[in-house]
Amino acid sequence: MGYWLSAGVHAVMIDDDAVFLDVASNAYFCLPGIGSVLSLEGRALKAASEGLADDLVGAGLAATAPTSEPASSAMVPRRTARAVIETLDPSQRRRPKAGHWLKAISAGFASRAAERRPFADRLPPLSARKTPDAGTTLLADLDAFRQLQPWLPFDGACLFRSHLLRNYLTSLGHEVDWIFGVRTWPFAAHCWLQVGDLALDDEAERLVAYHPIMVR
Fold this sequence. Notes:
Blueprint: E1 3-5, E2 9-14, E3 17-22, E4 27-31, E5 38-41, E6 44-47, H1 50-58, E7 62-63, E8 79-80, H2 81-86, H3 98-114, H4 136-148, H5 158-171, E9 177-183, E10 188-195, E11 198-199, H6 204-207, E12 211-215
Helix pairs in contact: 3-5
């Protein structure tokens, strides 16, 4: 019998450890040292025993039928937007205009309001689309945001910050990937925005320590 990740569940293998993310409960689960009896290919699971598979099904992490959700995939972040922006010609830099301020403030209030909703409701729909590479317009709008950000009356953890920036960029017509990643020993979860191999709101050198588990 075949097994697949349940709807709303995402997973990644990190060496011999399996990490699951259950979006509905906003909870991570780690099964350390299980790589010899469990493997993951896309959203398909292969368990060495029916007992292990049944346990995963009983925990709500696996199902006996595939879902329509696409498997998550993301490029390894190799460039940092901050560094790229600093190398731009002055003619390509963009000082914040009134429109940038309005979009940023609106995005901030929307993200603050979203904090009152369940985690699943704060996420955009899953998509199998391929995000295009960062163009000069996206970099210019991001440059404007970076300049006005210190003056915004909003702050929070990575989930709030990336949600705010995503709202701002999508309101200006840009497509970005919202990536959720994990690491083990010690366990940590993080999220950031990325376009191609360009990290938009964090340092690429820091992000390579995380393994993408979900891309929205």
